[in-house]
C-alpha cells in the first residue's frame, strides 16, 4: 500500500469555490505514468499536478482526467502557492522544470507571479462550421497551440453554448473565445473537450495567447483579464517580450492522503 499526500487548491481566486480547482501531489520520485493518470481521473478536477524535488527546484507535470498536458497555468499557481505559503514559507520563489521549459514563480506582495512563454496566435480563416458550433460568426479567428475566436463583446462570450463535439474535433487544443471586457481589459472562456474538460474554469495557459493579442489591440503591456466561466477568475498579466507574467492568488481547500 502506498500513501501520497494530496492537496486541492482553488487557483486565481482568494475564496473557496471560486477560480479553478487543482489537485497537487508532492512526490519524492515519479509514480508510473498510468498510475498518475489514474489518480488524475480519480480526482476528476481539470488538472492534477505532480512534482518531485530536483536540486533547489522541482520537476512538475500536469494531468487532466484524460491526458498529460504540456502547460497548465492554474495548477502551476496552485503548486507554487502550496510550496511558498505552506510547505516552504521561507522561499521567495520556486522554479519548475516542465515540458514547456523552466517556469519560475515569485512572490509579488500577497500574490504570486508566474513567468510563462508567449504563444502568439496568427489570424486565419475561420474553419467551416465554427459559427454554427458557437452560435455566432466570430469577428476574427486565430490559431496558436490553442484556437481563438474573437467575439463582439463580453455579453456574447458569456452567452455562448458551444457544440463540444465540434470543438473536440478541431485541429489544435480546444477553443478560446474572447472579447473586450466590461469590467476588465478582456473577457474569455476556454473549452477543452479533447482533454476531457468541456469548459475549464480559469486557464493560465490560454492567457499565453490571450494576453499578447489584447496587448496589441489595446496598446499596453499590462492586461487585467477575466475568465467568465461559472466559477470565474481574474488574472493580472504583463507582457514582457516573449514572456507573459501571470499574477494571482490561490486558496487551499482540501488536505489529505491518497492511498493506492
Structure description:
The structure is a single chain. With about 260 residues, this protein is α+β, with helices and mostly antiparallel strands. The protein has six helices and 18 strands. It has an 18-stranded mixed β-sheet that branches. A hairpin with a 3-residue loop joins strand 10 and strand 11.
Quaternary structure of the protein: single chain
Instruction: Output the number of helix runs.
Output: 6
Number of DSSP E strands: 18
Strand content: 35-45%
Cα distance spanning the termini: 6 Å
Q: Taking all residues together, what is the mean pLDDT?
A: 96
H/E topology pattern: EEHEEEHEEEEHEEHHEEEHEEEE
Can you summarize the main beta sheet? 18 strands, mixed
* Rg from alpha-carbon coordinates: 18 Å
Global outline: globular
Low-confidence stretches: none
The amount of helix comes to: 10-25%
What structural class is derived from the secondary structure elements? alpha+beta
Note the main attributes of this structure.
260 residues, alpha+beta, 18-stranded mixed β-sheet, 6 helices, globular
Write a short abstract of this structure:
By secondary structure, the chain is of the alpha+beta class. The chain is 21% helix and 43% strand. The protein has an 18-stranded mixed beta sheet that branches.
Topology readout:
Layout (H helix, E strand, L loop, with lengths): L2 E9 L8 E7 L6 H11 L3 E8 L2 E7 L4 E2 L3 H15 L5 E6 L2 E8 L2 E7 L4 E2 L6 H5 L5 E4 L3 E4 L3 H6 L4 H5 L6 E6 L5 E7 L4 E4 L6 H12 L3 E6 L5 E8 L2 E6 L1 E10 L1
Parallel strand pairs: 2-3, 4-6, 11-12, 13-15
Antiparallel strand pairs: 1-2, 1-18, 3-4, 4-5, 6-7, 7-8, 8-17, 9-10, 10-11, 12-13, 13-14, 15-16, 16-17
Amino acid at each position: 500500500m502506498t500513501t501520497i499526500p494530496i492537496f486541492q487548491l482553488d487557483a486565481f481566486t482568494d475564496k473557496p469555490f471560486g477560480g479553478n480547482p487543482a489537485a497537487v501531489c508532492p512526490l519524492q520520485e515519479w509514480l508510473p505514468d498510468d498510475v498518475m493518470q489514474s489518480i488524475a481521473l480519480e480526482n476528476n478536477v481539470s488538472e492534477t499536478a505532480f512534482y518531485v524535488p530536483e536540486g533547489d527546484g522541482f520537476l512538475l507535470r500536469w494531468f487532466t482526467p484524460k491526458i498529460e498536458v504540456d502547460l497548465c497555468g492554474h495548477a502551476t499557481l496552485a503548486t507554487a502557492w502550496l510550496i511558498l505559503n505552506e510547505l516552504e514559507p521561507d522561499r521567495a520563489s520556486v522554479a519548475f522544470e516542465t515540458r514547456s521549459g523552466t517556469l519560475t514563480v515569485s512572490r509579488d506582495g500577497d500574490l504570486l507571479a508566474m513567468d510563462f512563454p508567449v504563444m502568439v496566435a496568427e489570424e486565419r480563416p475561420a474553419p467551416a462550421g465554427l459559427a454554427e458550433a458557437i452560435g455566432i460568426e466570430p469577428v476574427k479567428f486565430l490559431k496558436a497551440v490553442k484556437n481563438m475566436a474573437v467575439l463582439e463583446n463580453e455579453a456574447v462570450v458569456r452567452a455562448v453554448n458551444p457544440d463540444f463535439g465540434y470543438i473536440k474535433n478541431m485541429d489544435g487544443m480546444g477553443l478560446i473565445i474572447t472579447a473586450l471586457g466590461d469590467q476588465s481589459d478582456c473577457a474569455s472562456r476556454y473549452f477543452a473537450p479533447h482533454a476531457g474538460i468541456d469548459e475549464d474554469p480559469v486557464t493560465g495557459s490560454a492567457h499565453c495567447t490571450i494576453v499578447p493579442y489584447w496587448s496589441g489591440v489595446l496598446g499596453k503591456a499590462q492586461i487585467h483579464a477575466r475568465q467568465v466561466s461559472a466559477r470565474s477568475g481574474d488574472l493580472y498579466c504583463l507582457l514582457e517580450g516573449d514572456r507573459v507574467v501571470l499574477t494571482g492568488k490561490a486558496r487551499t481547500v482540501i488536505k489529505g492522503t491518497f492511498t493506492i
